[in-house]
Specification:
By secondary structure, the protein is of the alpha/beta class. The chain contains 25 helices and 20 strands. The chain has three domains: 300 residues, Thiamin diphosphate (ThDP)-binding fold, Pyr/PP domains (Rossmann fold); 187 residues, Thiamin diphosphate (ThDP)-binding fold, Pyr/PP domains (Rossmann fold), CATH 3.40.50.970; 130 residues, Rossmann fold. It is elongated and about 95 Å long. It starts with 17 loop residues before the first helix and ends with a helix.
């Protein structure tokens, strides 16, 4: 357990200069806000206030009057539990976050929630809280900066020229995602990325060395990072020098270990786990006031601090205005670049419909193709008219069909479009979030559906932040066969559907796949997951795709007359339903077959009364868990699915074994129709 140093003599009593005043201000704002809320984490803000103040007052390129300035530096508080540090910074440096909001910390409806939330609080670059996510998201931001600089900067105009800074703690570095992201950043030599490591050796349960013995700096050095040290986290001049060295580094990312004391300045609590996640108490805060010579006034911000940050803001405004003039000149000289890469926001795919129409609405009902291959064709068609589209895979591009023209992103050349994320699904998804949050590019990533479990936390954050990332998830069912139950997803599609804000599309053929890509390209307020087959599926033609776009479903086989039963399925099971319908016809039972690539939209349309299935009992069919389909099935309906793990063997044999054959579907349909007839 770390031992708190005594307050240096020259720092005892009233703070001596603006820097010390600024640091003390951040400390007391955090301590007082947590105390007022009776909830929160004061330890990190107290320990890291000097580093945060030094960075924001001397190095961070930002303008509080324009928090969405495209060429600003990005600051990510990866250790999001220390949110009051960030809220204090935003208030003190002049962002639109009044002191009243700090007084309302963690209260319902406030702009100062327990963990930073993108889109909720001005100046918050990304939602953090789940540890490690901030580091990995920042890697995506730094990568986006580098890729856009390669695309947009010209000998005459530099319009992309900023850095990404991260404040991370012990917990961030313990999480596996930080390893994934740091390795990728080192490989790509993201020289404009700096991680400031709050090395206080304390977790909630006590000393960090109870569970962690690794040398963090050595680990990052092994990943290819430059490593620097600041032995005293209160030494502003040493911090200043380290940040300046990091800012001068272009050939690799920088990792700065800053030795701090958690809860610094809180008598009897500093340096212990007691400072981590509980209010300090009024007596302790009173002792802090005496120790630092701080006024009794709660939420006090000295005039000297306000004046210093106002001067910094005035300088920043001039820098931004200079950049704006440069940007306007660049846009006038390079109209195609300016249209393709809308700096600071996601470019719109204006030509997506035109590019995808031949693959969707004009598709013919003949032949067979895996939807992963159809997705590859749609992706390439979209890439041809959407220069901002970039992405890659977790080392599976040839299997997920996600290679697009334009070359690869390499350590020495970021002008390519294909990113090799490596076998790092979680890190890939978080980096995708960072690329999206940065603006200027539209990103996709791919892996096998079963491995969506690895990336789910980052996808959840994408949904929370309404980021339009596209996840291409192939090998979507037990039909992967011989790979066995470890690789046969049965619960994954449903688990994705229950994340609020995620659009889950499981197309049945090439036409629906192209339509799904059109839906994804047009969606700018949340993530999309495309669920795709490895095996070939029959092409069903382009009729009814407008119904898919509007209502999530289309009729692919109409009954002759009134149907006795409806077979409603998604993905590969639509082909199965069509064969079953023919078997039923041979028995004199007419069936309508409905493809449901977008179940959530179908549910909404059924609730709203804008779409209806034929008035007959319905058999819902999907090669996965049945719980979601049972929720929409009525008393006269049936559900066919898989509520168990699969088996290893040829895909169709496994399907037959698990009750997913045309004859099995026909038997259930006959029983369902018979029950209705009675």
């Amino acid at each position: 357990m770390s031992t708190a140093p005594s307050v240096p003599a020259e720092r005892a009593g009233q703070p001596a200069n603006t820097d010390e005043l600024g640091v003390a201000t951040l400390r007391f704002l955090a301590a007082e806000a947590v105390q007022a809320a009776n909830s929160g984490h004061p330890g990190l803000p107290l320990g890291t206030a000097p580093a945060a103040w030094t960075l924001w007052s001397r190095h961070l390129r930002h303008d509080p009057a324009a928090p969405d300035w495209a060429d600003r530096d990005r600051f990510v508080l990866s250790a999001g539990h220390g949110s009051m540090l960030l809220y204090g910074l935003l208030n003190v440096f002049g962002y639109d976050l009044p002191i009243e909001e700090l007084k309302n910390f963690r209260q319902l409806g406030s702009r100062t929630p327990g963990h930073p939330e993108f889109g909720h609080t001005v100046g918050v670059e990304t939602t953090t809280g789940p540890l490690g996510q901030g580091i990995a998201t920042a890697v995506g931001m730094a990568l986006a900066e580098r890729m856009l600089a390669a695309r947009c900067n010209t000998p005459e105009h530099t319009v992309v020229d900023h850095r990404t800074w991260v404040l991370a703690g012990d917990g961030d570095l313990m999480e596996g995602i930080s390893h994934e992201a740091a390795s990728l950043a080192g490989k790509l030599k993201l020289g404009r990325l700096t991680v400031i490591y709050d090395d206080n050796d304390i977790t909630i349960d006590g000393s960090a060395n109870q569970s962690c013995a690794d040398d963090a700096a050595a680990r990052f050095a092994a990943y290819g990072w430059r490593t620097l040290w600041v032995d005293d986290g209160n030494d502003i001049e040493a911090l200043d020098r380290a940040f300046a060295e990091a800012a001068a580094t272009e050939d690799r990312p920088t990792f700065i270990t800053v030795k701090t004391t958690i809860g610094y300045g809180a008598p009897g609590i500093e340096g212990t786990s007691k400072a981590h996640g509980s209010p300090l108490g009024n007596e302790t805060i009173a002792a802090m006031r005496e120790r630092f010579g701080w006024p009794d006034e709660a939420f006090h911000v000295p005039a000297e601090v306000r004046m210093a940050t106002a001067e910094r803001a005035a300088q920043a405004a001039k820098t931004r205005l200079d950049w704006t003039r440069t940007h306007d000149e660049w846009a006038a000289a390079n109209p195609e670049k300016a249209e393709a890469f809308t700096l600071g926001r996601i470019p719109v795919a204006t030509k997506a419909v035109e590019a995808l129409a031949p693959l969707a609405d004009e598709a013919v009902a003949e032949g067979r193709a895996a939807t992963r291959k159809a997705s590859g064709a749609a992706l390439n068609a979209l890439a041809a008219v959407y220069p901002a589209l970039v992405g890659g895979s977790a080392d599976l591009a040839s299997s997920t069909n996600t290679t697009i023209p334009g070359g690869e992103v390499t350590p020495d050349d970021a002008s390519g479009r294909t990113i090799h994320f490596g076998i790092r699904e979680h890190g890939m998804a978080a980096a995708m979030n960072g690329i999206s949050l940065h603006g200027g590019l539209r990103v996709f990533g791919s892996t096998f559906l079963v491995f969506a479990d690895y990336l789910r936390p980052a996808l959840r954050l994408a949904a929370l932040m309404k980021q339009p990332v596209v996840h291409i998830l192939t090998h979507d069912s037990i039909f992967v066969g011989e790979d066995g139950p470890t690789h046969q997803p049965v619960e994954q599609v449903e688990s994705l559907r229950i994340i609020p804000g995620v659009t889950v599309l499981r197309p049945a053929d090439s036409a629906e796949t192209a339509a799904a890509w059109g839906i994804a390209a047009a969606k700018l307020d949340g993530p999309t997951a495309l669920i795709l087959s490895r095996q070939d599926l029959p092409n069903l033609g382009g009729a009814g795709l407008d119904d898919v776009r509007a209502h999530g479903a289309r009729t692919v086989r109409a009954a002759k007359g009134e149907p006795a039963v409806v077979l409603a399925a998604s993905g590969s099971e639509v082909g199965l339903a069509l064969v079953a319908a023919e078997l039923l016809a041979d028995r004199g039972v007419e069936a309508t077959v409905v493809s449901v690539p977008w179940r959530e939209r179908l549910e909404a349309s059924l609730r709203e009364g804008t779409y209806s299935l034929p008035d007959a009992p319905t058999v819902f069919i999907e090669a996965g868990v049945t719980v979601g389909w049972r929720a929409i099935a009525g008393p006269r309906d049936a559900v066919i699915g898989i509520d168990r793990f699969g088996e290893s063997g040829p895909g169709h044999e496994v399907a037959d074994h698990l009750g997913l054959s045309a004859s099995a579907v026909a038997r259930v349909a006959l029983a369902t129709a018979g029950a209705e007839a009675d």
